[in-house]
Write a structure and sequence with these properties.
The protein is α+β, with helices and mostly antiparallel strands and 509 residues long. The protein is built from 16 helices and 21 strands. It is globular.
Amino acid sequence: MNEADQESGAIQKIVIVGGGTAGWMTAAGLSAVLGDARITIELVESAEIGTVGVGEATVPHIRNFNAKLGLDEADFMRKTQATYKLGIEFRDWGKKGEGYIHPFGAFGQAIGGVAFHQHWLRAKMRGEADDIEAYSLPIIAARLNRFAPPSPDQRSLGSTFSYAYQFDAGLYAQYLRAYSEARGVRRIEGKIQDVALRGEDGFVEAVTLESGQRIEGDLFIDCSGFRGLLIEQAMKTGYEDWTHWLPCDRAAAVPCDSVEPPTPYTRATSDEAGWRWRIPLQHRVGNGYVYCSSYISDDEAARVLVSKLDGKAQQDPRFLRFMTGRRKKQWNRNVVAIGLASGFLEPLESTSIHLIQVAITTLLELFPEKGCAQADQDEYNRVMDLEFERIRDFLVLHYHATQRDDSSFWRDKAAAPIPDSLAYKMELFRDRGMVVKYRDGFFLEPSWLAVYLGQNILPRGYDPMADSVDPVEAARKLAELKAAVRRTAESMPGHQTFIEKFCDARGAA
């Protein structure tokens, strides 16, 4: 660091507290961007403290993160036992026995400048349209267990989708650790015993390990998980509890043997007191049961989970306790909380790793000097608050838009109050199929459509602008699209076949 940097108050040292997915993603992201700035990055973690490590499914944004790091996709997939993901299948959420897929891609394309789903709604009311899934390439490909990368030709139907990954989060953390250490990040083994705050401004000055080693820094990143070692235990930042909207407070997780080729999608199946996830990797299947302890005991949840596995359990179920919500400030003074330390939203839509990625990206955009200007903190907290709130609304929608009445949990969920921001979105859609759009926030129109229609929220009408297109002509285009989607999906190789050709992990170190 030169004298000019020192005089300007430039950050010289970053200390990341905690490893796991959040810690090593942060280390990798910061070292990739800040490597030329001669900023020292140290990560403190203890091998004795376990990581949660159950968030194995991602959303397409992870590809942008990996690309910015310069990762080779095939190598990354082999090293993390990854499979491809075209979307998430939801079973038994609207009614028992029903299912739908939330795809990473579009439903059709606009006709006459009017959104495709408006023409579909009109045709459906006339009895001239199939289920909306028939018009989505990633859904039909997923149903057929097929996969191929999107076409670079934007005029092609093959360009109308994206994809993500299903991987072993523990292996991903190891992979990023090697990446980070190769770029100068220093890992320090040890448990933190004390956090020293500066008297004049309350900034974290240093952390002291059980060994007595004192580690000073200018900027501290709290990746210590639910404990929030810095952001909460030391700084008393406060937590906003959202359990009145999302009451599940426990999860049981267990991997099992694979008994069939992996599907290119994650599955979330609703159960009597919550829902179960299924995430197929190359070497095993990840499973879990997210539930509310007011409706089922831990022992019963574990019994249900194990009884519904595809193959033999590879270990006993592990239990997690959590409170849905977020920190009142995710950046407080010179501490930025990332991952579970910043808050928790159940992994129903695979957003845990996405929130880590958004946090890293936003921090880099607002990267501070030593004083951590309040304006930077405020803007960071505004962006992250919006991300949390809009994901929260989308998750609450899944629970609220249910017709299940076979257990007290689902009866209570259907009758529970919802955020005003979600009630507004739902009413606008019920009127004539309008989907609220916004500049910031994660889930776009196809995501909302998938859940609304998949869980039987049907509009009373449609956008009258659709009437500008002759209904016979619109019906013809729908039929052509349906046939093209089926034809394109059937031309793709099998998911397992593509993996074996491109990124087979068998024999990988």
